[in-house]
Amino acid sequence: MKLATYLYQHTTSCGIVTDDGIINIPTATDYALHSVKEILIKGKSAFERLKSLPDSDVPRLDFDQIRLCAPIPRPGKLLALAGNYARHLEETRWQDKSLDRQAQCTNPWPFLMPSTAAVGCGATIPWPGYSDEIDHEIELAVVIGKPAYAVSPQQAPGCIAGYTIANDLSARSVSFRQGRTDRPRDAFFDWLMGKWADAFLPLGPWLVTADEIPDPHNLDLTLTVNGQVRQQANTDQMTFDVYRIVSFLSHLMTLEPGDVICTGTPHGVGLAENRFLRPGDVIDCTIANIGTLSNTLGPKPDTFYRAFIQ
Asked: Is residue 287 over pLDDT 70?
């Protein structure tokens, strides 16, 4: 089942995506379900009521009648992993090639992002005023369906509601003060702050429930910019697989329905070849069995506020 969040007649709603349109859940059933997150929280009982709708004759909305939002518009937690593909680490020189596989697999590198970074398919991404180098990163994103605390990798599949696509955009040249004297950890925090801009984590186009993706570790990923392939890989190349990621994070914090976990990007980012995005670029992220997430990068601001910290 594909679950979408969208704007219809100026109201945010949720629906089931079918080949011939979208079933608007609030009007198709008398069961009180008004958001994808609500569906996840109610769990099995909600899915039981919804599973027959795609085969019914309930009315559909045409795709041109709606505007897609992120499947979970404001996730309680937005988590992501850095460096979860070995070739990406090598191309960005984050890690020495001489490290053996065991050393690379010590533990994941997770970080948090603000919920305001989430935006839907079709949205134009505003260019942040503190960077002039913007980069792309296609990622498989996991959506949590049940509370998870200290679960094992074997238990993790039962906590996953489904999957969507993420484009973890990065501002690579973050600078807040001209002539700054760099401190030892400035580079790390510049990288981290480069992930936090509004609308810098497009998600979508919808959530595909886990039963339709029985093996998330064999999915082709392709990212194009204006039709040109920039990233192409398979999720079987992850250092830490989906279930180990969920397990690890659940030992750090309680994962809750609607939390989103981005599982890392493969090689091919612009940073590796000093080839960054430009205003007006169309970025298409495609993952097998899910769909295509498409967004356009907006214009650069007239002025950059590099010196706003005095």
From this structure: yes
Which residues of the chain form CATH 3.90.850.10? 78-297
Above 50 in pLDDT, residue 307?
no
Beta carbons of 70 and 7 less than 8 angstroms apart:
no
What top-level class would CATH report for the domain 78-297? alpha beta
Q: How far apart are CA 32 and CA 39, in angstroms?
A: 9
| Span 148-177, pLDDT tens digits | 999 999 999 999 999 999 999 999 988 766
